[in-house]
Specification:
Elements (H helix, E strand, L loop, with lengths): L1 H4 L4 H5 L5 E4 L14 E18 L2 E11 L4 E7 L4 H6 L5 E11 L2 E5 L2 E4 L6 H7 L2 E4 L8 H11 L12 H7 L4 H9 L4 H32 L12 H8 L6 H14 L6 E6 L5 H14 L3 E5 L3 H15 L16 E5 L5 H13 L2 E6 L13 E7 L6 H8 L7 E6 L5 H7 L4 E5 L9 E7 L4 H16 L3 E5 L14 H6 L6 H10 L7 E4 L5 H13 L4 E4 L12 E6 L7 H8 L9 E7 L6 H11 L3 H12 L7 H4 L14 H17 L7 H10 L2 H8 L2
Parallel strand pairs: 4-6, 9-14, 9-15, 10-12, 10-13, 11-12, 13-14, 16-21, 17-19, 17-20, 18-19, 20-21
Antiparallel strand pairs: 1-8, 2-3, 2-5, 3-4, 5-6, 5-7
Helix pairs in contact: 7-8, 8-24, 8-25, 9-11, 10-11, 15-24, 21-22
Length: about 700
């Protein structure tokens, strides 16, 4: 159990809740079986046939079993020597539980070599258990099937009475929640659906409340820290910059800027999350905050996740600022400051100069990758840290940068992947959130379409014609692929693997095919992460200058690339990207006055979840809506935990998206408890629960924000 499911104690096991409950003879609706996931189904054998086939190794046997739940059918296959026992056991009419990984073969879903447990009516102990109306189906693995976990839970369940209840009694009574041991009984061995509901309601509250208490304590502690107040100055850099902007700020940009200016003028550190639609002008808001800090005598640092991005931010900031970025140079304006770039691949001389400008305070603004965090980098007076693209930036890294100030600097975290409010409340619960939800005037609409390459090859041919038309109209296009193409090919294990997955399309191969074929005669270039930084920069500059018609790239272009003349993006193997990634990639076009076009190319069959995901992306341009869809599909393990800290998600019952009310209410209750008793002296049980939720690693993770 420790190895397969990371369960080490009786408590871990009791908090390993059933994923769902099967009623006798019910199968997960067959159309909804998730590809590549481990599932457990309860069904009846409809027929079983052995096929003999010839292969390189001689004659082989394959057993094909069809199971049904009355509403749909699913194929099981067994190979080789493994066919004899199931052939005897799985006679038509037999009922059983089957567990295995869902794969795709000849465009149909199947389970290969599933484990199974027969459901017989022959009076042994198992039958009494099976006769119960609700069979708990646990999250399981190949080594540990759901029915084995169920037996272990039976053994451990009596000790649930000793569980320490973290919810304060007043809260339980006020909200009408059952006690913890009762909830554990009901969730594992429910007699009715109402039992399950009671248990879930209660266990969701545990998770939401304990997490929110942890975050409320963070906010409370942060509120006690000192910071240097940075009050905006009149007639300084910021005013000069605003005066030369060729457009007016949107209402949203003005509102968010006010929130930020109020907070950096306070005596304790700002911790704010700035999220906005792709292209809503977050960089501009961040730049104005940086200028305000420079006006107040401090320095500002902006951290980007990749060199390409750091260079682009540097380029766009210096372009927007013009002579205001030429401090200490001839032709610089009198209020000007220096804007320096600091990345790992800079030459020694340039790097030395940049470090010197930071230490002396000559440079008011520095833009860089995590090279900024190295020990050698010293600031004169670091007042504000802006982190771009939070989800690619480790907590330890932000922490190290924060330690560069004499007092903690103000922190502004920007994310271009809009996050639903509840997720923001849970994952970034220690940050206040600002949202930019309107696009600046002059942005063009983007049309998005799914191109089913396997079902309708002529659609793909038409896609390349469309790219050609855009180029002939004086515009440019991106083609995005999941792989670069010079990696080692993964070894194929067997004929089954062969049929199941071809490698993802690669930049180098696709660029070659396009140049020789459908896009012959156009200027096609490639861009990917393994190129030398100078080469990457040169390609980007040529593309921005209009000397390249089509850029075939990996997701290096996902964030922040701004070429208003690019109007089309074709995303190959689009099903291999996440929803937010697709939304980011689509945001690379439609940045000028001409309408944008985004084509999502996929070979996945229509009914698959991957195709549904693509259709969802094509159907809406609203990033907040998409992030909800994304979460509903992926669940939030990725949001809390894995993607954030590499620690397994602590949420087992709470679904961040569906449980908005619980999370909001838990946040209020938690804030009240912490305000009244920051050290939780009056709530020893809650402290125990906090320690369990926040093992050392997580506590540090939260502490680092």
């Amino acid at each position: 159990m420790a190895e397969a499911l990371d369960l080490h104690t009786v408590g871990d096991l009791l908090h390993h809740y059933p994923r769902r409950y099967a009623e006798r003879g019910e199968l997960t609706a067959l159309s909804e079986l998730p590809l590549d996931e481990h599932v457990t189904v309860v069904a009846q054998v409809a027929d079983a046939r052995v096929h003999t086939f010839n292969s390189a190794k001689g004659r082989g046997q394959r057993l094909e079993v069809t199971i049904t739940d009355g509403s749909g059918r699913l194929q099981l296959v067994f190979f080789g020597k493994g066919v004899h026992k199931p052939h005897k056991d799985l006679l038509p009419g037999t009922r059983a539980m089957f567990a295995g990984k869902v794969s795709l073969f000849n465009r149909k879903l199947q389970l290969a070599h599933p484990a199974y447990e027969l459901l017989r009516g022959d009076g042994d102990d198992a039958v009494d258990a099976w006769a119960g109306a609700l069979i708990p189906i646990y999250p399981a693995t190949t080594k540990l099937e759901s029915w084995k976990i169920a037996k272990a839970v039976d053994a451990a369940l009596p000790s649930a009475v000793e569980a320490v209840d973290p919810l304060p009694e007043a809260l339980r009574d006020g909200r009408g929640l059952v006690g913890l041991s009762e909830a554990l009984q009901k969730v594992h061995r429910p007699r009715t659906k109402a039992d399950i509901e009671d248990a879930r309601q209660r266990l969701k509250w545990d998770e939401a409340f304990v997490l929110q208490v942890a975050l409320a304590r963070r906010r409370h502690a942060d509120g006690q820290l000192p910071a240097v107040a940075r009050r905006p100055v009149e007639g300084g850099l910021l005013d000069a910059f605003d005066a030369k902007l060729p457009f007016t700020l949107t209402e949203g940009q003005q509102r968010v800027s006010r929130e930020i200016f109020d907070e950096i003028a306070a005596e304790h550190p700002m911790h704010r999350l700035l999220q906005g639609e792709v292209g809503s002008g977050k960089t501009l808001v961040a730049l104005r905050a940086m200028l305000a800090v420079v006006d107040a005598g401090g320095q500002a640092a902006m951290l980007a996740p990749t060199e390409v991005l750091a260079q682009q931010h540097h380029r766009s900031v210096t372009e927007m600022m013009g002579e205001l970025a030429e401090g200490g140079m001839l032709g610089g304006a009198e209020q000007a400051t220096k804007v320096v770039l600091l990345t790992g691949s800079m030459g020694a001389a340039a790097r030395r100069q940049a470090l010197l400008d930071l230490v002396t305070g000559e440079a008011g603004i520095v833009i860089g990758t995590h090279a900024l965090i190295e020990d050698k980098v010293q600031f004169h007076d670091l007042g504000l840290v802006v982190v771009d693209e939070q989800h690619r930036f480790g907590v330890e890294q932000r922490d190290a940068l924060r330690g560069k100030g004499k007092q903690p600097p103000h922190l502004l975290v920007m994310t271009a992947t809009p996050i639903p409010r509840t997720v923001a409340m849970t994952v970034f619960g220690d940050l206040e959130t600002s949202v930019l939800d309107q696009l600046p005037a002059g942005r063009s609409p983007i049309a998005s379409h799914v191109v089913p390459a396997a079902d309708k090859p002529h659609f793909l041919a038409r896609a390349w014609e469309r790219v050609r038309e855009e180029v002939e109209g004086g515009h440019q296009a991106y083609v995005v692929c999941p792989r670069i193409g010079d990696e080692e090919e993964p070894k194929k294990k067997s004929a089954e693997d062969e049929a199941e997955k071809r490698p993802a399309l690669a930049v180098l191969e696709v660029a070659e095919k396009l140049s020789a074929g459908p896009l012959a005669g156009l200027r096609v270039e490639v861009l990917h992460g393994r190129m030398h930084p100078d080469d990457k920069d040169a390609v980007m500059r040529r593309f921005a200058a209009g000397d390249v018609d089509v850029l075939v790239a990996t997701t290096v272009i996902e964030v922040g690339v701004n070429v208003p003349n690019a109007t089309a993006v074709v995303i190959m193997d689009a099903d291999r990207f996440g929803v937010s990634q697709l939304h980011q990639l689509r945001g690379r076009v439609g940045r000028g006055s001409a309408p944008g076009l985004c084509l999502l190319v996929s070979e996945m069959p229509e009914a698959t979840p991957a195709r549904q995901r693509l259709s969802a992306v094509a159907a809406t341009l609203d990033g907040f809506e998409l992030s909800r869809i994304d979460l509903e599909q992926r669940r939030e393990g990725d949001v809390l935990g894995q993607a954030q800290s590499g620690v397994r998600s602590s949420l087992r019952m709470l679904a961040v998206i569906d449980d908005e009310e619980v999370i909001a209410a838990a946040r209020e209750e938690a804030t009240a408890v912490v305000e009244a008793d920051p050290e939780l002296d009056r709530h020893p049980e809650l402290r125990v629960a906090l320690d369990a939720l926040l093992d050392k690693e997580r506590e540090e993770y939260l502490d680092k924000g």
